[in-house]
Design brief:
- The chain is an alpha/beta fold and about 240 residues long.
- Helices cover about 35% and strands about 10% of the residues.
- Helix 5 (about 185-205) crosses helix 6.
- The longest helix is centred in the N-terminal third of the chain and has 28 residues, at about 5-30.
Amino acid sequence: MPEQPADLHLNLLKIVTLLVLFPLLYVLACRSLPAPRRGIGHDPNGKEDRADPHRTQEEPERPVPLSITTMPDYRFSDIPSRPENVRGNLGRSPARNWQHIVIHHSATETGGMDSFDRVARRERGWKGVGYHFVIGNGHGAGDGEVEVTFRWEDQIHGAHAGVEQYNEYGIGICLVGDFNTGYPTEQQIRALVSLITYLQERNNIPTSEILLHRHLKNTACPGEKFSDPFIKVLSLLRR
């Protein structure tokens, strides 16, 4: 029996409805899906998106290594007898019988006087940062910047050596960095030599009393890789 006109019209209406409805449903379904997360492998510029605020624990942040893994040459044409990049009152007149200079590392890749001061006050209950000077590495303080702490400005004892004699009469200098895994920057060594030279001349401290923290007690500070830089420092001193 031939198809009636009414049935034909109904079938055509169904086909047209399906042709219109399916694309609409597809668009709505796509919009309801979560957008692809930006991160490793999803950056259109071919670089890892390190500022993704929605990383999960399964996709942890991958920090950029900050340590210098190859020792620089540490060659300087001229080292000033007083540090040039200084924050604070370096010229404070000595009011204590300073006899030693003790070198430390922070054992952190970043930081500076302010962050170390907060940790000392909040977590250790100290008056503040235990060192007299902090030398930045460019990550938390300027590269080679000498930060003068309240202990030098007030001419009071340090809290850095773990040995009474060297806390009372030892000037504590901390270089920001972990020198178990890397080396100080060239600017840090330049600033360190300049600072030690200045302190030696002002306080009549002999080079034999320029010490590493590990010379005083059982510790790796200022790091296993600081031995060669320390030899270089001693070779550059004027006394």
